[in-house]
Amino acid sequence: MFLALPACARTPETTRTVLADYNLDDVANGYQAFFPRFISAHPGDTVEFRQAWTGDPHTVTLGRLVDEAAKPLLPYLKGQKQLPDEPPEEISAGFAKLPSFFDPDINQLAAQPCYITAGALPSGEAPCPKRQQHEPEFHGTETFFNSGFIPFAGVQGNRYSLKLADDIRPGEYAFNCVVHGPQMTGTITVAPKSADIGGQARINAAAHKQLDRFAREVRALHKTASADKPSGVDIVAGAAPGGGAHLDGYDDREFFPASFHASVGQTVTWLINTNPAHTISFHVPKYLPVIIVGKDGTVRGNPETTEPRNGPGYPPDAPQAAPSENAGPPPPVAVDAGSYDGHKFLSSGASFGGPMLYSVTFTRPGTYPYACLLHPRMVGELVVR
Question: Please, how many CA atoms are within 13 Å of residue 332, restricted to the half-sphere of its CB?
Fold first, then answer.
């Protein structure tokens, strides 16, 4: 089986490993899910969340607010109820009480570590006061217990360790990513220390089962997207997101086709899908982080990855995505980037406003690698003769 959990079997039995997101070997993808969603642990154990960086920020967020939001959701996640096409209002209302990571800019209350022992959640978007103990033990009684943005580089890159307190009461505690809402939710069932809950092998088996199902779904999406190219479009950037009412969050992050041939003087047009947004970017600088964490802890997006560079991007006065998901996005906006010879950084900017038809006319022969700056495995190649 190619879906392998990285070195989970070698962790001590007092440490239990959960994956946040996952990179498939054969399809560039994003999964808005934890693998597995449900684990058991003992008081005093450590739950280590290992993030697969696909370009999406993630958090691990717990506390009474998360427990309350997850309570009506859990029967659906556990398969005890069938979720209707329109999720019940009590689910969306509960998660609306949690701070949103994008509001629309990055919300520091959600993006930076925040540990509120008791009382209400602070109003506004200011970060929580810093603590000397950066990652305190989780007692299960806190109002809000948030990892903040899990960085993809550095000493703690792609990891968050949650230490369960020795005196935590047995019970079920929900965890959530405040970036991705209800679909990226799971629980830790804390059992008495005397209870036999199995080891990491049991957690791995549950993760494999869930990953296998997600992999089948994203490959089906990939197959459909590969065969579906609208007229007047040469390359499609990103398949439509998968998942839906059944709360599986995934999407396919590829260019269709990944390699394309054109002639000198030919105009090539990409259809850049949205949700998630993508970019078409040539001659990319060596290092362009999507999200930057400042020395003071401030988390911000990098405009180099989202704003158009050396050419036009999504017009600011263009129709924005429909407020209702059921209404769908507006028609693609056409953007002509003009002539390009491959000697400068050229980027469409992110398609946050809606789908975009992005056209470039190539004036010199050569091989033009390009990428989506928001998703590290989303790359393509254009050969101009």
Answer: 21
Tabulate helix, strand, coil % of the chain (nearest 5). Answer: 15, 30, 55
CA distance 116 to 133: 13
Region class of 76: left (phi > 0), else alpha (psi between -120 and 50), else beta: alpha
Q: What is the pLDDT of residues 66-110, one digit of tens each?
A: 999 999 999 999 999 988 777 789 999 999 999 999 988 999 999
The token pair at 290 is 């999507």
Residue in the block written with tokens 């690698």 = 369
As beta bridge partners, residue 171 has 190
Beta bridge partners of 291: 301
Q: Whole-prediction pTM value?
A: 0.91
CA dist 340 → 249, 261, 312, 372 (Å): 37, 15, 13, 18
Q: Which two tokens stand for residue 62?
A: 């717990």
Structure tokens at 28: 């560039």
Asked if residue 28 lies in contact with residue 378, where contact means CB atoms within 8 angstroms, the answer is: yes
C-alpha angle with apex 181: 180 to 182, nearest 5 degrees? Answer: 130
